[in-house]
Q: What sequence folds into this?
């Protein structure tokens, strides 16, 4: 339980430390929070057993006006996550919306970081997680609006990744406090952030790195017989990867870098590997560089002068058009590195860089990182790419590109509804592609993942609600005899 809206965490890693501003409303006294520089407008702190703890913020009836909570001033110095829980008190009302803003020192909106339309079941708790990487002093503003009905908005368990930077002594009683004096920091490249708060202190065109996964490579694993289930061993293409987004001091994306290490090919097909930057126009890309020579050849893929695929609304980059270019076949068995005892081939890494801004200038509108989540990197394979372009296999609930053969949806074992958010899933919710935050120990050839990973089936059928850690080496989770090793 929090007594004051500040919690300091020390990280024993080098000499790094960061602060966090938290609010759980557990004193139940709005006046206390106003004294701590939280500002309320048509909102109050009431007893609630529907969110965590005994108390939560409640709006008035959302059929009337705008209902607001504003945090104290917060000094942001490093990457972090803004988190909170929210729901409605009842399911009535034709419209219920929440917007979250960052306010600058003048009190104006600096960025809109979150927008949410509460669905039909408005009483379901939403646990929001918003990635932030910016520097400076801001306030966070939650704004509830609605039409019809009498239901109220609820907010709780707020955590803001920064240092409390309000002056409670300069408080008029409303919670609208003054900001603390801001010290002048050395800024060698004169781009705004201080040298100790950016990753490129001597480059005015770059400021921050955002990596996904954050600390180590993740793994993509594909089945290539979609829309049929196939042998379901998830080793037809196994690629370790890490993506890096570079932004400038305006939080505009300068370039997107990615490294892909192909570890296994359990397929006889010549499958291609590609990505689409969802919602980034193809014409916004200045240049694509690829460390693999002759990554794309033949007639299947048409590549434009800026390195993206022709005929696509959004920027689509072919990383390689044939997996065997990066992991050559070295034996008599099907595939590479999927059969125990067969010759092992050392994995090969491919690096790409997609340039969106050069010398401070972009082609068309700059891409704001806070408006373009990392999950918009849409990774997929094109099966049998030497025979045609149409068979795309994406991660579950990702959309195909413009050049995919949409007539395949709903055939075989596929139960996609491409007009909705349900894609690349079977009737039993099983996917054809996996994205895991670790280097995945994949099944051997022809071994169904359901038999190799005993919690995979329950995880998939529950829609990810159960056994979210099914891929870890925990007791009762694996049949090790069905997992590849060399």
A:
């Amino acid at each position: 339980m929090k007594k004051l809206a500040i919690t300091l965490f020390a990280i024993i890693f080098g000499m790094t430390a960061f602060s966090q501003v938290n609010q759980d409303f557990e004193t139940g006294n709005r006046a206390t929070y106003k004294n701590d520089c939280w500002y309320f407008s048509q909102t109050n702190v009431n007893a609630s057993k529907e969110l965590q703890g005994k108390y939560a913020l409640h709006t008035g009836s959302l059929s009337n006006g705008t209902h607001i909570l504003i945090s104290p001033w917060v000094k942001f110095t490093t990457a972090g996550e803004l988190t909170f829980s929210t729901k409605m008190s009842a399911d009535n009302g034709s419209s219920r919306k929440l917007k979250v803003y960052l306010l600058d020192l003048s009190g104006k909106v600096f960025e809109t970081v979150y927008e949410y339309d509460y669905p039909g079941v408005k009483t379901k708790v939403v646990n929001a997680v918003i990635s932030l990487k910016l520097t400076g002093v801001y306030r966070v503003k939650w704004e509830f609006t609605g039409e019809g009905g009498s239901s109220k908005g609820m907010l709780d368990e707020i955590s803001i990744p920064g240092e409390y930077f309000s002056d409670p002594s300069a408080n008029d009683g409303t919670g609208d406090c003054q900001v603390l004096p801001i010290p002048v920091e050395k800024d060698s490249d004169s781009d705004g952030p201080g040298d100790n708060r950016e990753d490129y202190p001597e480059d005015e065109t770059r400021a921050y790195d955002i990596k996904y996964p954050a600390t180590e490579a993740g793994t993509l694993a594909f089945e290539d017989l979609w829309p049929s289930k196939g042998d379901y061993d998830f080793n037809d293409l196994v690629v370790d990867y890490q993506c890096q987004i570079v932004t400038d001091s305006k939080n505009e994306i300068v370039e997107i870098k990615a490294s892909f290490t192909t570890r296994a090919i359990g397929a006889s097909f010549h499958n291609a590997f590609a990505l689409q930057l969802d919602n980034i126009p193809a014409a916004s890309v200045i240049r694509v560089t690829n460390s693999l020579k002759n990554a794309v050849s033949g007639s299947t893929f048409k590549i434009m002068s800026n390195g993206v695929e022709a005929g696509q609304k959004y920027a689509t980059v072919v990383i390689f058009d044939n997996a065997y270019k990066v992991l050559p076949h070295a034996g008599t068995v099907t595939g590479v590195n999927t059969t125990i005892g067969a010759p092992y081939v050392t994995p090969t890494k491919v690096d790409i860089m997609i340039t969106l801004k050069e010398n401070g200038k972009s082609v068309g509108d700059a891409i704001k990182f806070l408006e373009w989540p990392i999950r918009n990197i849409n990774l997929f394979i094109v099966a049998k790419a030497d025979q045609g372009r149409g068979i795309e296999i994406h991660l579950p609930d990702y959309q195909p590109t413009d050049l995919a053969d949409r007539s395949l949806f709903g055939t075989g074992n596929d139960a996609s509804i491409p007009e909705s958010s349900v894609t690349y899933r079977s009737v039993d919710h099983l996917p054809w592609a996996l994205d895991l935050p670790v280097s995945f120990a994949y099944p051997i050839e022809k071994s169904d993942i359901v038999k190799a990973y005993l919690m995979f089936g329950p995880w998939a059928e529950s829609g990810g609600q159960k056994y979210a850690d099914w891929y870890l080496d925990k007791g009762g989770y694996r049949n090790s005899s069905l997992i590849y090793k060399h």
